Amino acid sequence: MHAIEIHDLHKIYGKGKKRVHAVKDVHITIEQGQIYGLLGPNGAGKTTAMRMMLSLIKPTKGDVKIFGQDVRQHHDVLRRIGMMIEGASFYPYLTGRKNLILLARTHGLSDMTRIHQVLEIVKLSDKADQRFGTYSMGMKQRLGLAGALLHDPDLLILDEPTNGLDPNGILEMRLLLRDLADNHGKTICF
């Protein structure tokens, strides 16, 4: 079974002369355990495609299947997905750890040991008790990834996880994503 199957995906905004094709004729198949990067310039429709994968917006045309299920008909499959769309967004006055505790509670997670585990995975354990507002861009992105990993999803959909990072941060994020696929069995689309 494929992790993601996209067939003939389109998203059109507006009508008449003001119609804009945000996504046009996209076909993608991503195998389980694979890392897949959507490439294109700003405005190419990458974020829009990800939003359709997550059923956050409705396609004008086409189908999106996650683990063999149409996301529009089987919303329960979304539980198998961790996501970070358009950057990490947390409360700046709370610590990284407290932000994750709050997020865990909204997911209905009661086992707080998972927070320690994801902080270890993203290498933020030593900074977890600092306020999110004091984090560097790289730390913010890693905490966003920790939040996406909290419920131990099978699939990660990450919108520009290296955005705003310096060359070292980009390398660290790439190595982290490779580790998640190779050693934690995650399928990753970014």
Q: What does this 3D model show about the protein?
A:
The chain is an alpha/beta fold. The chain has helices at 46-53, 96-106, 113-121, 137-149, 167-184, and strands at residues 2-13, 20-31, 35-36, 61-66, 69-70, 81-84, 155-158, 187-189. Helix 3 crosses helix 4 (137-149). The strands form 2 sheets. It has a 4-stranded antiparallel sheet, with helices on one face.
Please describe the topology of this protein.
Layout: E1 2-13, E2 20-31, E3 35-36, H1 46-53, E4 61-66, E5 69-70, E6 81-84, H2 96-106, H3 113-121, H4 137-149, E7 155-158, H5 167-184, E8 187-189
Parallel strand pairs: 3-8, 6-7, 7-8
Antiparallel strand pairs: 1-2, 1-4, 4-5
Helix pairs in contact: 3-4
Overall shape: it is: globular
Mean pLDDT: 94
Helical content band: 25-40%
Between the first and last Cα atoms, what is the distance in angstroms? 20 Å
User: How are the strands of the largest sheet arranged?
Assistant: 2-1-4-5
Q: How does the major sheet shape up?
A: 4 strands, antiparallel
- Rg (CA only): 17 Å
Kindly name the structural category: alpha/beta
Helix and strand run: EEEHEEEHHHEHE
Number of DSSP-assigned strands? 8
Treating each run of at least 4 consecutive H or I residues as one helix, how many helices? Answer: 5
Uncertain regions: pLDDT < 50 for 5+ in a row?
A: none
